[in-house]
Amino acid sequence: MEATLELKTAKGITIKAVESDKDFKDFIVFPYDLYRNNPYYVPPLKAQQASVLSKDQNPAFEHCVSQYWIAYTEDRVVGRIAGIINYAFIEKWNKKYARFGWFDFEDDEEVARLLLAACESWAKEQGMEAIHGPMGFTNFDPAGMLIEGFDKIATLAALYNYPYYVTCMEKAGFHKEVDWVEYQISLEKEVPKKIEQLAKVVKRRNRVSLFHPQKEQDIDRYAHDIFELINTCYSHLHGMVKLTEKQIQFYIKQYLPIIRKDFISLVINEDEELIGFGIIMPSLSKALQKAKGSLFPLGFLHLFMDMRKNNMGELCLIGVRPDYQGKGINALLMEEANKAYIRNKIFTIESNPELEDNKRVQSLWDYYHAIQHKRRRCYIKYL
To answer: What pTM does this model have?
Structure first.
C-alpha cells in the first residue's frame, strides 16, 4: 500500500512519507519539540511510542496497515500524521473507515490541511469511504482531540493538543462523530455512606465477593480473564475491536507489571469466575513531564517516586460482565477504588475519557463532588 513519497507546495511545505529510520525518529520526536515547556502536555515514553508504531512489535498489524507522513518547511519538521486501516474494525462494524492519529502540527492551517489531504488520498486509494480520528490501532491507544479543557494537565491515557487544532479540523471539512467527557472528582476522607450501603447490598444480592491480589501469581491467575472481559463488556463501545490472543499477551506484558497490586480490585462470583474488575493508579502526569519521554537517566526514578507517593489519581479501567451489568457492581468497584485512594492519601482523581452518553458510569459521580472539566472529540469526514 504505497503512499506518495513526497509532495512539495508553492508555499515551501513538503509532505513526505516516512521511509527511513531518520524519518521514523523525526515522526516520533516532533511533539516533544512542539509542546516543549507547555505545562499541560504529558509526553509519552518514546520507546513505548516506537513499539506501538512498529510493524514488527505491535500485534495489531496482524489486521492493520498504516502509513505515516511528516511535514517540513525547508529542513524543519512542522507536522506529522498517521493513517491507519483496521480491517478487523471494517469486518465487525461493516464500515469502510480509515483512521488518522498521531496528528500534530504547528499553528499553520496549510500544514494541517496538507497532512489531512495526504491521509485522505491514501485512504481513498485503499477503497475507504470515510476517515475518522484521532484514533490509534486499538482502543488502548489514546483517542479524541481535546476541544475543552486546554488549561488542564493531560493524563497518561489521553491526548493533549493546542486549541488551534479544532479550527483546522473544522476548516478541513471534518465534523463530530462522538465525544468523550472527563471529570475531576474530589474525595473525602471517608467513603460516602450511600456508596458503602449500596456496596453491601450488591455483594449480598448478587452473591459476589472481592478478591485483592496479594502477589504476582494472583495477578497472573486472572490477567487473561481481565482482557477477555474487556473484549466482552467493551464490545459495543465506539471503534472497539476484539483483542487477539497476541494482543492480550502484548498488553499483559506492557501494563500489568507497572500497576500496584493494591490498586487492582476483582469481583468474583460463587463459581470463582471473574465478573468485574477495576484498575486505578496514581497520576503519572508530573513524572512523565519530568522524564521528558525517556526512562534514563532519571525518568524511571520520577515514575517510581510518583507511583509510591502522590496526591492525584486516575481511574484506568473498569469492566463488568454483561449479565451482571445494571446490578450495582460499578458501585462496588468504586467503593474499593475510594478505599485504596484514601489509604494512599489521594483525594483528587481523574476519571479519564468516557463516552458522553455513558450515563451508567456518570451516575456514580453523583455521590461525589465531580466537575466535568474536559471534552474530546472523534471527527469524521466522508470521502
So the answer is: 0.94
